[in-house]
Every structure is written in C-alpha cells, then in structure tokens.
Specification:
Elements: H1 3-8, H2 11-19, H3 25-43, E1 46-49, H4 51-66, E2 77-81, H5 108-115, E3 119-124, E4 144-145, E5 148-152, H6 158-165, E6 171-176, H7 182-188, E7 191-194, E8 214-219, H8 222-232, E9 264-268, H9 277-292, E10 296-300, H10 308-323, H11 341-352, H12 355-368, H13 375-394, E11 400-404, H14 431-436, E12 440-447, E13 452-459, H15 464-482
Parallel strand pairs: 2-3, 2-6, 9-10, 9-11
Antiparallel strand pairs: 1-3, 4-5, 6-8, 7-8, 7-12, 11-13, 12-13
C-alpha cells in the first residue's frame, strides 16, 4: 500500500491489514515516521522520538503475524504523553525538574498497548506537569496547532492531540485532569474520551491531582476511540482505584451504530454566555441533528457551572502541592549543589519548576495551610460533593448533557502571556466531568471555515457505551457537512 493509503486507514482497519499480511507492521511504521518527520519541525508535537524502539516492536509483531498470531493493535503506531512512563524512555513531564529522569518501569496503559501489538513512536509535548491549557508551558517549547501553526494546540495534552491530527500517530495517550485531553482535541479537530474515573489504570502516570487525573485515548474518529478504550480499560492490581469491569462492560464498540432514538439529551442553560457565536451555532446544530435522529432535546441548569473552575483549581492545586512535595532535589528531581539540605531543596525547587507549577503549588499549599486551619479546603470539598450529588440526581432524569468543549476555537499562541490565570476559563465546561468522575467525550461538530469547534457529550458514571453511540451518530450525520468548515492537517 502507498503511504497515503496507510495513513487513511482507521485503527481497526490498519490492525486488520497487518494481521491479514496485506502490509507489514514495519511498513506501516515507516509510513508514519515519514509523515512525522515531514511536519514535526512546524508542529513540535514530540519531546522524545522512539523510532528504534518502535522498529523493534514492529519486527516482533511481524514475527507473531507470520506465526498466525494477529493482535488487536497489530502494527498500529501510537504516541504517549510525556507524563506517562515507558521503561527506558525519558519521562520529563516537560519540566527541568525531571529533564534527565528515565523510569525503569512502564505504565499499565503502555504495557497494554504494546501487548496488543502497538508501536510506540515517541513521547509527546505537554504543559509542565500537565498544568496548563495551551501546551506552551514546556521547557521544550510550544506545540503548534497543525491546522494553523500560529494557534495553540491546546493543553496540556497538546502534543498528543497535534500528533494525531497531523497523522504523526494513528492514536495517542493523553491525560485529563480538568479538560487536558478534551480541550486540545477540540482545538485540533480530533476526538478524546475522558472515561469514568477508575476505568483506566493510572499506574505509571505522574500524579498532578490524584482524585481527578484520568488517562484518555485521543483518536481521529469516535469508533477508533471506543476500540482503543476496550484495550486500555480494566482492573489493575497496581491501582486500587480501578473498576472491576467485565468483558461485557468493556465492549464499547458493540452497538456503537445503534443511534440515539429514545435518549433524553439536555442542552446546558446559559452556556451561550461563555461561548462565541460560531460555537453556539455548532452546538445548536448538533442538538438539531440529535433531535432529528430521534432523541428528545431538553434544557437544564447545571449547578455551579460558573463556580466550577474555581472549585477545580483549589482542589487540584491542593493535591498538586502534596504530590509535588517529593520533588525536593533530595529524594527526587533535579538536585542542586548547595552545601546545606535546606539550601539545596530551595534551589532545586526554584530552578526546577516553572512559573505555572509554582503558582499552583503556592495556591494549594495556602488552601491547606494551618493559617486557614484547613477550613477553606473543607468548604471547597463540600462544594465539590454538592456538585456531584446534583449532577448524579440530574442524570436520573436525563441521559446525556450536551455543551461546548470550550467556549471558542484555538486561540493565538502567546494570548495569555500577560494574564496567565485568564486561561483557566477555557476549562469552564470540562471540569465538571473531573469533579464528578463522570465520562465525557469531545468530538468535532463544525468550524468557522478555518478552525474546528468541539462539542462535548457527558453522561453518568459508566455510561461510555451510550456516549460513544451518541457521538458516533453525530459524527456520521455531520461528517460531510463540517468537512468544509475547518482545515485539515493532511
């Protein structure tokens, strides 16, 4: 097959072609490497390229195929966000603090991807320690949007989303703490699912906010996303927060074309106040499509929508200040040469962390401080629990919430240099999913003629099958309509 033909195949088609020996895993890999090398200078999606490792993996896959052992991801190249561990590959978190760290272990998600026959192309760029929404806060420079290099690819999983959008990988692993996979997916015109908390193991993921962090598949289509999640999901004895899912629970692709007839899908009241004109138009059109396909469309109030970002920022900052305390230059992380222990710790943390990480550590430390006797944090956690209760109650009456992934399209690089905290507002719609542990999927639903608009479908815990079904229906119905509404990386 020609390179363009290989790149055009979806994940399942690619694995099937390799499994049927129509093309070798090595040939598929070289096609993706060539595509990555063509565009990487302009995009900066990767921090570390692992082409040699991928070639070794491809040889093993081809050997297994020759013995009649086809795998679910046979020869499918993928990328990994660089806050997820892969044995023997640098794990930097885009931070000076971990610039030289090489883990001796692999994350469960990487183990499962490799066991399924996947080929790891490299580690992708991110905002330092996954703290950001633009993929600019990296010691390796900003990742640029493949659709317009002057625009942000989104963050913190900007490298993973850009790599998929630019055909530098067939799919990618991202992470989502408050929208870090869904927002860049929306900016780059690809698909990202933040599954129910506990669906995918966090073993091997560098912790930001442990109660919110989720590993996510990023793909070019809804069906690909469901297919990847089937492989990644499931119990892991090394992460006791993982859910005990049955094989039936994990059949996310089963019935994906079943449509939305009979579902109650709710538009969020007042979302227009936080979205631009094109985003509102695309979301309204999505609602009309779902209605035409047989869903009942209603409007509902989402509790604490205006305050959700502030609640999220306090909870995540408090957990980050605790999780990042270990990086002191003595136990872990960059070590300074100062004579005393206290001076070494001060220098290591001052020079090892960037401004955004320091800002969140200070915020979290203050929220937990004895000065406030912990009362402020308790009140914030109480507000979070109130949100959870009201959202769960809401899902007793409706099936799916429909809203924008973000209030607008990809913004210019450098837009928030003078006021970095203003960027936090871009997570307004996405943080609800993390605070409640509920699944939410982002997919392209249109554009302004140049850049894509992301729409988000959110359901109750463990409703991924239903969300994939609804997203697949929207994608199928709007596919031809939106082709001309935003540019394509290819």
């Amino acid at each position: 097959m020609k390179t363009n033909d290989l790149l055009s195949l979806n994940v399942r088609e690619l694995a099937a072609a390799v499994g049927a020996r129509e093309v070798s895993a090595s040939d598929v890999l070289e096609a993706y490497i060539a595509a990555a090398e063509t565009s990487e200078t302009d995009i900066n999606a990767y921090i570390t390229k692992t082409y040699d490792l991928a070639r070794e993996q491809a040889q093993r896959v081809d050997a297994r195929i020759a013995e009649g052992d086809a795998l679910s991801l046979s020869g499918v190249p993928y990328a990994v966000k660089d806050n997820i561990a892969a044995a023997g590959v640098p794990l930097t978190c885009a931070s000076e603090m971990l610039r030289n760290f090489v883990p001796p272990y692999s994350a469960t998600v990487c183990e499962r991807a490799e066991a399924a026959g996947g080929l790891m192309l490299g580690k992708t760029n991110l905002d330092e320690f996954a703290m950001g929404s633009s993929c600019e806060k990296s010691i390796f420079g900003a990742t640029k949007n493949p659709l317009d290099p002057k625009k942000s690819a989104g963050g913190s999983s900007g490298g993973s989303a850009a790599a998929v959008a630019a055909y530098q990988a067939a799919w990618a692993l991202g992470t989502d703490t408050g929208g870090s996979a869904r927002q860049p997916a929306a900016f780059c015109g690809v698909c990202a699912m933040k599954p129910t908390y506990g669906t995918v193991s966090r073993y091997g993921l560098t912790e930001f906010a442990s109660s919110l962090d989720t590993v996510c598949p990023i793909t070019r289509s809804v069906a690909d996303n469901a297919y990847i999640l089937e492989i990644l999901a499931g119990r892991d004895r090394r992460d006791m927060t993982t859910l005990g899912l049955t094989d039936e629970d994990k059949r996310y692709t089963e019935g994906i074309d079943g449509g939305v007839r009979g579902l109650t899908i709710a538009l969020v009241n007042g979302y227009e106040a936080f979205a631009d004109t094109e985003t509102v138009r695309c979301i309204q059109r999505t609602a009309e499509v779902l209605c035409r396909l047989g869903a009942e469309i209603v409007s509902v109030d989402v509790p604490y929508l205006s305050e959700a970002v502030e609640i999220y920022l306090t909870v995540s900052a408090a957990e980050a200040s605790s999780n990042l305390a270990r990086y002191d230059g003595i136990r872990y992380g960059k070590s300074a040469d100062d004579a005393s222990v206290s001076a070494r710790m001060k220098t290591s943390r001052s020079t090892g962390f960037g401004d955004e990480v320091k800002r969140r550590i200070l915020t979290g430390t203050y929220a937990l401080s004895s000065v406030l006797t912990g009362d402020y944090y308790r009140r914030i956690k109480s507000a979070q629990q109130t949100i959870c209760g009201r959202i769960y109650d809401l899902f007793e009456k409706i099936d799916i919430l429909l809203m924008p992934t973000t209030g607008g399209m990809a913004f210019d690089l450098g837009s928030f240099d003078e006021n970095p905290t203003a960027m936090y507002g871009s997570d307004r719609f996405t943080v609800i999913g993390n605070l409640t542990g509920c699944p939410a999927i982002s997919l392209p639903v249109g554009g302004d003629g140049h850049l894509p608009v992301g729409g988000m479908l959110m359901g109750n815990r463990r409703s991924e099958k239903m969300l994939y079904r609804a997203a697949f229906a929207v994608e199928t119905e709007l596919k031809d309509v939106i082709k001309g509404e935003y540019g394509h990386a290819e």
